[in-house]
Amino acid sequence: MIKTSEAEQYIVPVPTVRTSKRSTWIAKVVRDKYLLLLLLPGLAYFLLFKYVPMWGVLLAFKNYQPYVGFLESEWVGLANFKQFFQDPVFFQLIRNTLLLGLYDMVFFFPAPIILAILLNEVRKSFYKRFIQSLIYIPHFISMVIVASISYLLLTTEGGVINEWVLKLFGHKIDFLTSESWFRPMIITQSIWKEMGWGTIIFLAALAGVDQEQYEAAIVDGANRFRQLWHITLPAIQGTIIVVLILRMGHFMDRGFEQVLLMINPLNRPVAEVFDTYVYTAGIIQGAFSYSAAVGLFKAIISVILVFTTNYLAKRAGHSGIF
């Protein structure tokens, strides 16, 4: 009988195969090659149209002269930013953009959520799909058409709404040139055009709510409002927070096309925002470096708002986007 020590002499050790991280990575690439190919168009889009143009931010630190070229133009550092901060229009742009942003967050942001909850309460699927189709249509209408409709409805020269105002109050209101009516008009346009389309993501979140929770709440005697408050809203709370964080990234974007179509010399003091000012200074007046500095400042504020909102959401116990 062979002893244990002698038996161990006949055991042939199996060589340990060490797989490097590089070979593992290559194996995963080969395995998922078709999925990666599907990913290429999206990566190419973001690379070409989002990251490569970021090289142009250096224009904000130069005194760009077209006949000299981008690389040969004089480097002026923060001179363009100092000029912008010292310009009286700076505080006007900050005020107008922030007020429109606040109007947007107070009136427009909750609108798709409320509409999605109302649609979720519609039990007849035919009526629900019909209403969804109607409210999605304005999203596909050009802003030029929306501005034209607004002009036809609000103009003092035969506008339908102004004719009603004349019959009710005995005088017309110049909505299109009034400073006090500009912001409500812009927010109303945004709500009408994008509210329906914004319900898509919230309806998708509502579709994932467990129906047994509603059945249990009904058994416990909860009415529709209690079900909404204790089941529906907590179920879509995470989605609302994520959408809020993403929307804060566009807080300073007030819709260049929309504002440009509705702005005029009479309402310009309250209508001029960063987007239209960059267009005026850069394209019309030819101050390319100065307008690039203004645009970069706006982008930096947007990034700060996103990080701040994400941080506050995490501090409040919610999951952020990063």
From TrEMBL:
Protein name as catalogued: Protein LplB
Residue intervals of the ABC transmembrane type-1 domain: 94-309
PANTHER family attached to this UniProt entry: POLYGALACTURONAN_RHAMNOGALACTURONAN TRANSPORT SYSTEM PERMEASE PROTEIN YTEP, PROTEIN LPLB
SUPFAM superfamilies referenced in this protein's UniProt entry, alphabetically: MetI-like
Protein keywords: Membrane, Transmembrane, Transmembrane helix, Transport
Pfam families, A to Z: BPD_transp_1
Highest taxon of the lineage: Bacteria
Family designation: Belongs to the binding-protein-dependent transport system permease family.
Membrane topology qualifier: Multi-pass membrane protein
Membrane-spanning residues: 34-52, 100-122, 134-154, 228-249, 294-313
First-listed, main subcellular location of the protein, grouped into a coarse class: membrane
InterPro entries per record: MetI-like (IPR000515), MetI-like_sf (IPR035906)
Subcellular location: Cell membrane; Membrane
